[in-house]
Amino acid sequence: MSVDHHAEHPTGISRWLFTTNHKDIGTLYLVFSFIMAIVGGIMSLVIRSELWQPGLQLVEPNFFNQMTTVHALVMIFGFAMPAFVGLANWMIPMMIGAPDMALPRMNNWSFWILPFAATLLIMSLFMPGGGPSGGWTIYPPLSVQGGIGVDFTLLAIHMLGISSILGSINIIATVLNMRAPGMTLMKMPMFAWTWLITAFLLIAAMPVLAGAVTMLITDRHFGTHFFDAAGGGDPVLFQHVFWFFGHPEVYILVLPAFGVFSQIIPTFSRKPLFGYASMVYATASIAFLSFIVWAHHMYTVGMPMAGELFFMYSTMLIAVPTGVKIFNWVSTMWRGSMTFETPMLWALGGVFTFAVGGFSGLMLAITPADFQYQDTYFVVAHFHYVIFGATIYGLFAAIYYWLPKWTGHLYNETLGKWHFWLTTIGINLTFFPQHFLGLAGMPRRIPDYALQFTEFNQWSTVGAFFTIASQLIFFFIAIRAMKGGAKATDQVWEGADGLEWTLSSPPPYHSFAVAPKVK
Ligand code: CU
Q1: Is the pLDDT of residue 220 over 70?
Q2: Interior CA angle at 506 toward 503 and 508, to 5°?
Q3: Cα–ligand 1 centroid distance for 384 (angstroms)
């Protein structure tokens, strides 16, 4: 008797609602993250439009602050993190030869928390009293004052945190238990390694944020005074707790992208990754060091000199393992037969862009210099280079690299290159002038500015619209590849590492009915 395998899984809306399939959940994560990118992107255009010229034009100052806050929260928790959890869902089981994630039902839940959390977060802006205005760092006293919109935001952050902890547990359980026979840890593709380390980082960091958020909630509603100086508390305490989460959070965003670069650069250099083991150790030491640098975000609160020196040197220390990674990538390319297909362009553009952000990060780490840069547009320029370099470039590199595998169709290489170059021009036009604005003293999170800042702000605004308009090319490419086009082979990229290439393109709904052979 033959079995109809298609009858096993539902179709239509219930396929997506009740899915326990890692590929479907990966797709849900990616689609959700792109919707969030559009929401956050529209907010950034409102910000840049208001800053087109001095004075108050489009939005109220309060709303400007609240929307800037929500822009960051949407981009970090709604776009960047879910996008890479989506990639992990899609790729890790296929790369390590597992039939699915270890905890498929929990996987469904960790995704479906997200749309509700995001709805709360975005709705907060339209509540009486408005949304959160303390910045994405939700600093008190502003985050203790605010109306019900702030409660919406705090609850949303709790939910987003639960979702990413569940996702991390799943990734750890999968990598540690579900590898095909012969797939030892030191044979794993680097993307699986960086995600394994990132998942531990998430499990260590997110509960700290949850603690800070809970303390804010009890300060708001239950009469505690953790962060209220009048009641014997201290708002600086919040900054310490927040940044103990907040700095590792940066590496949560960055490390999976490093994993993507480590997959792509060897493929298009036609050489194995240089320094595999040192790449693993560098990733782990970046993760460890990220927990002992937090106060570099708060040099100006009045720390003892010994503290300032400690956080300055520990921060600079992170440049060592990061340098190891960049050295390994360059050595991988050295004397390789390099070609520059779209994924390689995004990977190299990402390493370069991240390095620019890394260097301005070193400048910010210098304590006395930071007294000048603190809370200026220099910081805004710095972290956008870091986050764009890793997250945006890493994500697009990954998508172009694996899209033929996912859809079974090749994408349009010429349009992909156009997408890369226009985005690169747009991003640099947006954020490079912000270095100069910050050095000249323009403060961040303020809807108005002094006349002499106008010109650089206008470059920046033009760049923002240019960048976002360029993304239309991507949507065109992605939708076209999903609908059809030239058939992709199973291997797609010759010599590429990872068991995903042994599956058909697109892969079957249930991959690896039989455990694959590992060389
Ligand atoms: Cu930091």
Answers
A1: yes
A2: 65
A3: 13
9: left (phi over 0), alpha (psi -120 to 50) or beta: beta
Output the CA 250–ligand 1 centroid distance in Å: 7
**Tens of pLDDT, residues 266-292:** 999 999 999 999 999 999 999 999 999
CA of 152 to the centre of ligand 1 (A): 26
Q: Please give the distance, rounded to the nearest whole angstrom, from the Cα atom of residue 207 to the centre of ligand 1.
A: 18
Question: Alpha-carbon Rg of the chain, whole angstroms?
Answer: 23
Amino acid at 43: M
Ligand 1: distance of its center to the CA of 251 in Å?
Answer: 9
Q: What is the pTM for the complete model shown?
A: 0.95
For residue 487, give the 3-state DSSP assignment: strand
The sign of the dihedral angle between the CA atoms of 204, 205, 210, 211 is positive
The residues pairing with 409 across neighbouring beta strands, listed in sequence order, are 487
The set of catalytic residues is 71, 100, 136, 163-164, 247, 249, 251, 262, 296-297, 322, 325, 444
- pLDDT tens-digit series, residues 415-430: 999 999 999 999 999 9
Among candidates 275, 285, 157, which has minimal Cα distance to 216?
A: 157
User: Which protein residues have a CB closer than 5 Å to ligand 1 (ion)?
Assistant: 247
Strand, helix or coil for residue 238: helix
Tell me the one-letter amino acid at 489.
T
Which stretch of DSSP H or E encloses residue 107? helix 104-123
